[in-house]
Amino acid sequence: MRAPGIVHHGTRRRRAVYRRAVWSGAEVLVTVGVVLLLLVVHQMWWTNRQARHNAERKVQALEREWGNPAPGSADPGTSTGPGTEESGEGKGEPGQTGAGGGGRSAGQSSSSASGRAGADSGRTRPRWSQAYAVLGIPRLSLRVPVAEGVSKPDVLNKGYVGHYKGTQQPGQAGNFALAGHRNTHGEPFRYLPRLRRGDTITVETKAAVYTYTVDRTLSRTSPRDGGVIRPVPRSTVRPSYGYSEPGYYITLTTCTPEYTSTYRMAVWGKLTAMRPR
């Protein structure tokens, strides 16, 4: 008969150490997994909830500051202007500012009230990170504050849309260019690819309500493609996309594809109506 196996104390200790190491490793992996899950929840849910709440409160505060919201400001059917985009609306000399000229190009009345509203918009320079307008996109059921600058901590991460420094203001000749998050922090531009030619975009300020009509989309370009926000917007990476004549433009930019910042997309529109408050 064979003698029963003998397990030495050293072998027992090695097995115990191995079990403890495996158990400790498993605990570390579970802890790391929980932390990562919490980070994802914070980034994808909490930041959106918080930013949207802040943005909604800011929109309400601006409306209280201006008085009652302009009637039908989110409804493009109440705006006046040409019925088509091919009528040459929004064209003017590059040096011309003010929505009074923009309104006339769009077939609006050239009354002194309209001129004053455009002039006020052109002269006012918002403070850095100050929210001073409301962007409305009916197709996306979106109403979001517009603030000066595109700083992440001071503007975009608050759920706002940011105005590119050096581009024109609403209603001015040139390019009113904006940026917004595609994902997290309120993600106001998450569904920007859903916009189609002919959709309306409104920009409400203390002076007036400006209506732009979506005209063209650049689905993907380099983050360094500064041509998309020039006064006459045209991609420097894909030159077949953009414009060649001065006008009254709006540009919306965001990251693409979703959950990355590899590329940028741009949606362009033209000013088609202006209504003073």
Number of DSSP helical runs: 3
For the largest sheet, list the strands in their spatial order. 1-2-3-4-7-8-6-5
Give the SSE string. Answer: HHHEEEEEEEE
CATH level-1 class? Mainly Beta
Q: List how many beta strands DSSP finds.
A: 8
Terminal-residue CA separation: 105 Å
- Outline: elongated
User: Which spans of ≥5 residues are poorly predicted at pLDDT below 50?
Assistant: 70-117
CATH architectural category: Beta Barrel
Q: State which percent range the strand residues make up.
A: 15-25%
User: What kind of sheet is the major sheet?
Assistant: 8 strands, mixed, barrel
Q: Based on helices, strands and strand pairing, what is the structural class?
A: alpha+beta
Going by CATH, what is the homologous superfamily? Sortase
What would you report as the Rg, rounded to the nearest angstrom?
27 Å
CATH topology: Sortase, Chain: A
Structurally, the number of domains stands at: 1
Report helical residue fraction: 25-40%
Average of pLDDT: 79
Write up this protein.
- The chain has 277 residues and is α+β, with helices and mostly antiparallel strands.
- It has one domain (41-276): Sortase, Chain: A.
- 28% of the residues lie in helices and 23% in strands.
- It contains three helices and eight strands.
- It has helices at 9-66, 99-105, 112-123, and strands at residues 131-137, 142-148, 161-163, 174-179, 200-204, 208-221, 248-256, 263-276.
- It has an eight-stranded mixed beta barrel with strand order 1-2-3-4-7-8-6-5.
- Helix 2 (99-105) packs across helix 3 (112-123).
- The longest helix has 58 residues, at 9-66.
- The N and C termini lie far apart (105 Å).
- The model is unreliable at 70-117 (pLDDT under 50).
